[in-house]
Amino acid sequence: MDDFLIVINNIWNTLVIIVTHKIFYITFFTWLIAQTLKVLIFFITKHKFDFRLFVGTGGMPSSHTAAVSAITTTIGLYSGWDSPIFMVSLCYALIVISDAMGVRRAAGKQAVVLNKMMDEIGHGKFKYEKRLKELLGHTPLEAFAGILIGIIFPILMF
What span, in angstroms and rounded, lies between the C-alpha atoms of 50 and 150? Predict the structure, then answer.
């Protein structure tokens, strides 16, 4: 029983170390701010509240881009702009941002076409369970807004 309590205590201590680390909580709160802005911007422009945007992908600003920009900025501030971990984080951020604007955006455009095809042939024998998610990737403007949020908020919070 003592071994079990030691393991639980070690897990708890590790979780506390992670969530109270400056790099983690600055990145998390930057992501949270971007997700909240996404819901607010949608509400202001469409006059509808959609909570799914808070946990989903796509939309303005890109929270993925904000998060990877935040972690990269915070690592640069914390470890130095010439540190190896900053360089790794920068490369990771570039891949995520490129993916958000490229592959995921293309997949979203394909989903629009496939959903339209399913709508047009849906009256025949072909039946489908669920529409494909169309809002997957980001426009360059949405990604740029995420980058700005991911740089500005960590500098203010650091």
Answer: 23
Same domain for 12 and 47: yes
- pLDDT single digits (tens) 94-125: 998 888 777 666 666 666 666 666 666 666 55
Instruction: Identify each DSSP E strand in 4-158 by its residue range.
Output: none
CB atoms near residue 150 (< 10 Å): 30
Same domain flag for 36 and 26: yes
* DSSP H or E stretch at residue 88: helix 84-101
Q: Same domain for 127 and 56? A: no
- Whole-model pTM: value is 0.74
In tens, the pLDDT along 38-52 reads 888 888 888 887 777
Q: Please check whether residues 31 and 76 belong to one and the same domain.
A: yes
CA distances from 3 to 6, 7, 8, 9, 130 (A): 5, 6, 9, 10, 48
Total tally of structural domains belonging to the chain: 2
Q: How many Å apart are CA 75 and CA 158, to the nearest integer?
A: 10
Residue 116 sits in which domain range?
A: 103-136
